[in-house]
Specification:
Residues 1-27 are annotated as: Disordered. By secondary structure, the chain is an alpha+beta fold. Helix content is 29%, strand content 25%.
Length: 118
Amino acid sequence: MAATKAQKTPKGRKNYGRNKGRGDAGETAVMRMLRVEGYTVSTAPEHPHGWADITATKGRETRRIQVKNITSRRFLTAAAALRRIRGRPYNIRRIPPGGEVWVFDADGRRYVFRSGGR
């Protein structure tokens, strides 16, 4: 696979590969939280075709969760976090029915957005 535009810059090369580690750390934290609440948790394969990173089930309830671990920003409000994930590079315009987006910021704050604005 050819290098991306960001990987061709010194800053991009220095950061290369770190995003996956950050994402995995966020997913691990979410899975831990859900297991404490009694959910059975599974992750998507390495190259998922679906929307969610994590699927959690408890009885008949199923939650599909997309995790964003944005450690380069601090969000003081949920509105600021929502604006960030709706813009580039995330472009999450619509959360599918039954879906959730969990956003973690640099200070470890968590913001949860669900389909239908719940």
